[in-house]
Design a protein that fits this description.
By secondary structure, this protein is α+β, with helices and mostly antiparallel strands. 46% of the residues lie in helices and 22% in strands. Keywords: Membrane, Transmembrane, Transmembrane helix.
């Protein structure tokens, strides 16, 4: 039997933001190309804004289609620009939640001994609460003394939530 995992599901708002970024970036690139052919000076400013437009298009593509998150009992997997990275959950000592400045969504901060704090953005996912609870469950399995900061505990509760175990028992598709 495969290990249970919770996979992110993008929301409609995520796709709207992604398409908005791509359209704004394409318009900015178009304006810069027009300014270049009209001879706008200084040329470096046209190039700079054109590069900003290209970055906005790439950011929209990443936001909408090339990002993801998976939580398993063993690790956290984050996808960025199509590449998956695994972060082991051993050694985590504390978890905190912050409001993300974009759209006010949840951002989990996982703090461990002798490792860099891990920021997990959950704003773009429709099942952000379930992902957060599954992540706290998995971290709690490795360290029952996991400290959940008060503002996060008020929002989600304290582990164990049983999200991964319930998913395994219910036989829902992985």
């Amino acid at each position: 039997m495969s290990t249970p995992k919770i996979t992110s599901i993008r929301s409609v708002q995520t796709y709207l933001v992604a398409v908005g970024l791509m359209v704004m970036g394409a318009v900015l690139v178009g304006l810069c190309v027009g300014a270049w052919f009209q001879g706008v000076e200084p040329r470096w400013s046209v190039i700079l804004f054109g590069l900003l437009g290209i970055y906005m298009v790439l950011l929209g593509v990443e936001e909408g289609w090339l990002s993801g998150l998976e939580v398993t009992p063993r690790c956290l997997r984050l996808q960025s620009f199509g590449r998956w990275q695994e972060y082991p959950l051993e050694g985590l000592e504390a978890a905190d939640g912050l409001r993300d400045i974009l759209a006010g969504g949840l951002q989990l901060i996982l703090i461990g001994k002798e490792r860099e704090a891990l920021k997990v953005p959950l704003r773009r996912y429709r099942n952000a609460g379930q992902l957060a609870q599954a992540l706290l469950d998995a971290a709690w399995l490795h360290n029952p003394d996991l400290v959940v900061m008060p503002r996060l505990a008020r929002r989600l509760g304290a582990p164990p939530f049983g999200v991964l175990a319930a998913r395994k028992r219910s036989g829902k598709p992985q």
